[in-house]
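Hi V.,

You were right to ask for the full record rather than a summary. Here it is.
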Amino acid sequence: MRPAAALMAVLALGAAEHPALRDPGHALWGEHAPAVYRVTVETTAGVFTLEAHRDWAPIGADRFYNLVRAGFYDDSRFFRVTERFAQFGIPGAPEIAAVWRERSIPDDPVKETNTRGRFAFAMTGPDARTTQIYICKTDMSSQDKDGFAPLGTVVEGMDVVDKLYAGYGESAGGGMRGGRQGRIFAEGNAHLDRDFPRLDRLIRAAIVGAP
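Predicted structure:
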């Protein structure tokens, strides 16, 4: 096995074995995030850093913080990338994806705006945020009126976000509203890697400074 493939396999195994990922009632999910925290995201296009502000969207900031801590996003794919945004947040392992597919959180009031570099949870309607995150590549402030509450912004590596492969557009996963994500949930990375091999990979997301 090539070193890169071996690393991906180890990361996937580690994420799948974290007990909180299979147990939405685990104590980890009830913990609050710091007032401000940063997340480094290692990808096949490079590394970028997200900075989340809990006062912008506390419920969403807590969910994202704990998902990152549990390794939820490790070894997944940027399955929906367009000229406007980059989206990720469906695990590569179908058994983990199934646990969280309908595990929604209540909305946060929209306090900030969806301008370039901001990131927020994708959703299908009120109180429907789960695990999927989009990053604005352009001004998407029209999202504000629909309840999409930014959690924070890209503070380093926006050029990396811009480089994420966008050639498949909506065809690899579409939106949550589009109803075209079923195969990702059912087959995970096996489907995406076979049918959309040029998608960039999210290798690992980690809280900056965490052990």
